[in-house]
């Protein structure tokens, strides 16, 4: 019984303290928040349902404690271009395609871009190695933090 209660306590603790990142999906919303909060914007270009390196980067970088600790210092914007049509709305797909054309014309996935609140590109990093080394991504992150 003690083991069951202890396990239940651990499960509730972990679930209760897990942090979901607040990803925006609209650039204007992200810019307005960034201006209000004096933050930069991290833009993540992903192909959520087809891009294997995107999925690995999500697990290794975006879900890491180190990233989560710093995420509140940025406004997060996800620009997804999935193959499946049911993942995002047609309106969101159109918005995302415009952002890709402007900020990721090479259509490199995954790509992460740091923007100022006015939309000026501060820095970027593309791709993710099969070695799954996030060192460069954390250097990028530090470069866009205020």
Give the beta-strand count.
5
Specify the overall morphology: globular
Poorly predicted sequence stretches spanning 5 or more consecutive residues: 2-18
Q: Helicity, in percent?
A: 40-55%
Write the CATH fold name. Answer: Glutaredoxin
CATH second-level architecture: 3-Layer(aba) Sandwich
The run of helices and strands is HEHEHHEHEEH
- For the record, the CATH class is Alpha Beta
Q: What would you note in describing this structure?
A:
It is a single chain. Helices cover 47% and strands 18% of the residues. By secondary structure, the chain is of the alpha/beta class. It has a single domain, classed as Glutaredoxin. A five-stranded mixed beta sheet has the order 1-3-2-4-5, with helices on both faces. A hairpin with a 5-residue loop joins β4 and β5. The longest helix is centred in the first third of the chain and has 16 residues, at 2-17. The chain is globular. It starts with a helix and ends with a helix. Residues 2-18 have low confidence and may be disordered.
